[in-house]
Design goal:
binds flavin-adenine dinucleotide; FAD dependent oxidoreductase domain-containing protein; 29% helix; D-amino-acid oxidase activity; nine-stranded mixed sheet; Rossmann fold; 29% strand; 7 helices; six-stranded mixed sheet; elongated; alpha/beta; DAO
Length: 340
Amino acid sequence: MYTIAVIGGGVIGLPAALAIQKEFGSKAKVIIFADKLSPHTTGDVAAGLWTPYILQNTPQEKVLQWAKATQDYILELWKRGEAKDAGISLQVMVNLSDQKEFKIPEWAKITLGYSEIPAEEVKSYNDKYAKRFTGGFTFVSFIWEASKFLPYLQKKFVENGGEVRVKNVQNFEEVAQFDVIVNCTGLNSRFLVPDLLVRPVRGQIARVHAPWQFHCFMTDEEHGHYIIPNQECVILGGTHQEGDFSTAISEQDKKFIFDGCVKYIPALKHAPVLKHQAGLRPGRDQVRLELERRNIGGKEVKIVHNYGHGGSGVTLSIGCAEEAAQLVKEALKFFVPSKL
Ligand SMILES: Cc1cc2nc3c(=O)[nH]c(=O)nc-3n(C[C@H](O)[C@H](O)[C@H](O)COP(=O)(O)OP(=O)(O)OC[C@H]3O[C@@H](n4cnc5c(N)ncnc54)[C@H](O)[C@@H]3O)c2cc1C
C-alpha cells in the first residue's frame, strides 16, 4: 500500500486528500497532518464565493480549468441534494468595474447565466452611487462556505479510511518516510518550503444579520467593497492588504467596510453585527502546483506542492485537488517501486 502525507487540512488540503483517495482507493493510506482544522483555518473567514480573485499571474487557462472543475463539483453536490450540509447556496452576482477600459474577464464566460450590464444600467448605478463605473456583468454563482464544507469533507475523508492527525510539521524531514508528501500549507509555505514568494494578503470582513439580502454585490475598484450572503449571515467586505501579517481586528477597517457597503445597500446600516474577522490569504505571483524531488538525508523525497491560491482558494480547490492527485500518480509511477 502506498503512504501519502497531506500537510494541511484547509480549503486546499482536504479536497486534495479526498481526490487522492478517489484516485488510489484501497491502494493508498492517506494521512492529513494539520495544526489547525475548521473552524480555525483561513477558509473559515472566507465568504466562499465562487469567483477568481487576487490571482495575479496564474495562467488564465489554468484558472479556467481549476475553477470550472470546482463549479462542476459544487453543482453535482447541489443536484444530489447535499447543498445544505455542504454549505452551498446559489446566488445572483452583480459585478461592477471602474477599469478605464472595461473588459469582461475570461472566467466570466464559464459562469452560469453570465450577461453584460447594458451601458444605460451602468449609468444608473453611477447616478445612484456617485461613482464612475465603466461596465459590469451579472451571473449566477455558488457560495461554498468553508466552515460548513470542511467538516463535511473531513467526515467523508475519515469514512473512506483516511486519518487526520493534529500536528505541526516543522520540516519535511518529519514526514520523509511517506512515499509522497502533498504540501497544502497555504501561507505557511513561506516558512516550511521555504518560499518567500508567498506573502499574506490580509482580509477583514464583518458578518451581519440581514436575512433579507439575497444577492451578491462586488466592484473591482482598487479598494472595492463586497456584499456576500451566506446561509446564516451576510458578509460585508473587505480589505486586501498586501504583506500585512496581522489578524487583529482594525477599527479603521471596520469603518471602511461599513461606510462602503452601506453606500451600496443603505439598509445594511441597521444590520446587527455578529462577528468581525480577519484572515490572511496565501498570496503568490502564481499558484504553485507542481512536483518537487528533494534530497533529504541522501533520500529522494517526492513533494507535490499545492499552495498560493490568494483570494480564490475555494474557487480553485477541486480543480487543483484533481491535478494534485495526478501529480501524486506521476510521482509514484516514476519514482516508487510498486507496492501493490
Ligand atoms: C477575508 C477573506 C475572504 C475570502 N473570500 C474568498 C471567497 O469568497 N472565495 C474564495 O474562493 N476564496 C476566498 N478567500 C481565500 C481562501 O480563504 C484561501 O485561498 C484559502 O482558504 C486558502 O486555503 P489553504 O488551504 O491553502 O490555506 P489555509 O486555509 O490557511 O490552510 C492551511 C492548512 O495548513 C495547515 N498547516 C500550515 N502549516 C502547517 C505545518 N507546518 N504543519 C501542519 N499543518 C500546517 C494549517 O493548520 C491549515 O490546516 C478569502 C480569504 C479571506 C481572508
